[in-house]
Amino acid sequence: MISANLVKDLREKSGAGMMDCKKALTETNGDVDKALDYLREKGIAKAGKRANKIASEGLANIYVDGNKAVILEVNSETDFVSQNAEFKSLVEEMGKALLNSEAKTMDEALKVKTTSGETIEELIIAKTAKIGEKLSFRRFELVTKNADEVFGPYLHLGGRIASLVILKGANEEVAKDVAMQAAAMKPKYLFSKDVPSEELDREKKVLKEQAINEGKPADIAEKMIEGRIKKYYQEICLADQTFIKDSGINVSTYVTNNGGELVSMIRYEVGEGLEKRNENFAEEVMNQINN
User: What CATH class has 4-49?
Assistant: First the structure.
């Protein structure tokens, strides 16, 4: 019987998760030192010790096979690691495994088997140990299109930004143009109707206060909101954005003019919304020396 105190002791020494520690102790008949070696051999201890590190660099990528596509983001601590072949092969192996799966949640995705026979979760742990940085699988989405629809995948800055759109009708060239627009102009939503009501109300309140602070009477300020909200939509909604290849039309018009219809958009920018590392090289070196 493995006691809770033994598990706690091993967790403190290894930084590994409770279930991993319990399994290691079971495999080694409760010997903490042997269990620690077991975790280190599996790469779990090293991965666990990096749990408090910030992984905000990395790569986003898109994989397409017929009517199915997957977009994913995998993070590392440094941009240097995100550009090495080991990390890129990890992202590719994960992407192809997910593309052949039916995973809908992150829990399901982590259990997906890769070509090496390991699950995605096991592969990340092993690569963390080998590369020596915290690696994390942040997000993914599996997308299926209909036969009369086309994918528009686009990677920018070597995978720093990935955008995937689906158009009904049109062709792949038009879809790629729209994906490039999404990558460059950073829309938050596809259509104005997709903007949450609370976000829209907050924006209207801010715009009204701006107008009043400009000296406009309240009734005039209220009327000014309509025009400013239209400009707001043009900034955050892909369909309403001015098309970068023809400033005389918006994206929706460009798609319509080419016999198409906007269906969906996903845009990933690596590290968006994540805390960034404090880049202090001297401190990093000293930490490595002292550890």
Answer: mainly alpha
The C-alpha atoms of residue 277 and residue 53 are separated, in whole angstroms, by 8
List, in sequence order, every residue forming a beta bridge with 136; answer none if it has no partner.
75
pLDDT score for 34: 86
| CA-angle at 131, arms to 126 and 136, nearest 5° | 65
Do 192 and 262 form a contact (C-beta atoms < 8 A)? no
DSSP 194: G
Strand order, beta sheet including 68-76: 57-65, 68-76, 136-144
pLDDT in the model for residue 285: 41
Q: Yes or no: is domain 57-144 CATH 3.40.50.150?
A: no
CA distance 220 to 261: 37
pLDDT of 267 above 60: yes
Residues in CB range of 89: below 8 A, 6 or more apart: none
C-alpha distances (whole Å) from 188 to each of 84, 183, 238, 266 are: 30, 11, 8, 9
Residue intervals of the chain classified under CATH 3.30.479.20 are 57-144
Helix, strand, or coil here: 228?
helix
Q: What gap in Å lies between CA 154 and CA 152, rounded to an integer?
A: 7
Q: Tell me which amino acid residue 78 is.
A: T
Between CA 22 and CA 7 the distance in angstroms is 6
What is residue 213's predicted lDDT score, i.e. its pLDDT? 82
pTM summary value:
0.75
Cβ atoms of 270 and 83 closer than 8 Å: no
In whole numbers, what is the pLDDT of the chain averaged over residues?
87
pLDDT tens track for 44-103 = 655 555 555 656 799 999 999 999 999 999 999 888 988 999 999 999 999 999 999 999
Q: Which residue type is seen at 76?
A: S
pLDDT of res. 280: 46
